[in-house]
Amino acid sequence: MSILIKNGIVVNDDSMFAADVLISDGKIAGVGSSIGTSGGNMEVIDATGKYVMPGGIDPHTHLQMPFMGEVAADDFISGTQAAVAGGTTMVIDFVIPNKEMPVLAAYKQWREWADPKVNSNKFNANLF
Question: Whose CA is closest to 5, among 18, 16, 13?
Answer without folding.
Answer: 18
